[in-house]
Amino acid sequence: MEIIAERNSSTKVFQTAMVNMMNSMNVATPKYSVADAMVKLCSMDDFDSSSPEFHYAYLESRYGLKPSLRMSIIEKVGIFVYVLAHDVPNRLILERFQHSGETGSRVFKEVLYVMDGMSRDILVPRDPSFKEVPRYLANDARYMPYFKDCIGAIDGTHISIIVPEEDQLRYKGKKGIPTMNILAVCDFDLLFIYVLTGWEGLAHDSQIFLDTIGKYYIVDKGYSEKKGYLTPYPKTRYHQFEFRGASPRGTKEVFNRANSSIRSCIELSFGVLKARWKILDKNA
User: In terms of Cα–Cα distance, which of 206, 207, 214, 259 is closest to 233?
Assistant: First the structure.
């Protein structure tokens, strides 16, 4: 009982520190933090959804993250977020949280498994039927009415990984290091609505593209022309920097510049993601 009482007492202090730390990391953009995502999933009336206690109780009730005798849920999430945000080795986990490296590694994997389950509820379109024209397009004369049916952008990014030596060759791509090619879809609010992982770094975007089902998305030249995917005109100026100081000439260049401008949302989303979670940004 003394151990449990001590844990509950220290949790309150640690909880305040963790909430402050998580809030301080909400820079760059996203409107939604991990806590916000939990609120989005809220359907329980017995908790104050604005309180930190609610978010962590929800992780336990819905996704099965359990406290241990000496570690609360909020501390487990704290270790997980700290590792993601700062890409720290086990030694620093030991110093900051006063737990062994083995404990830190085990807790990280435990929370990662839970977050994988939660992501299946979060990474979904806010408007599954796509009936409304995104405000980003509706309020810009450059895009309306020409792109009114566009619902997002698709692109891939490379994340460096550690794999056994015998598997490194097939994971080494143009970067020269083992990477995993991650394909993602985002909307115009910079929110990811679909993510496909598990492809070796050698896999080309267009190959990954064949493993997904889409609708009307903006894509770049790395994708095949196919129904539901809007690609730019080939052999025509496309990237934004190519139009600096030189206005587009002809309808194809006008289209390509608009296409590139709209698709920038996915590049910005990846940039924000890697800036916030340093573990993903290892010069991949």
Answer: 259
Cα(22)–Cα(75) distance, integer angstroms: 12
Q: For 129-169, how does the pLDDT look when each residue is reduced to its tens digit (9 = 90+)?
A: 788 888 888 888 888 888 888 888 999 888 888 888 888 88
Question: Domain spans of the chain?
Answer: 2-122, 135-280
pLDDT tens per residue, range 185-206:
899 988 888 888 866 555 555 4
Which backbone phi and psi does 195 adopt, to 5 degrees? -140, 135
Distance CA 103, CA 85 (A): 19
CA distance 94 to 275: 24
Whole-angstrom distance, CA of residue 155 vs CA of residue 205:
8
pTM: 0.71
Q: Comparing C-alpha atoms, which of 108, 48, 49, 103 is closest to residue 77?
A: 108
Residue in 188, 184, 186 with CA at minimum distance from that of residue 132: 188
Q: CA 55, 57, 62, 63 torsion: positive or negative?
A: positive
Residue position matching structure tokens 């009114």: 148
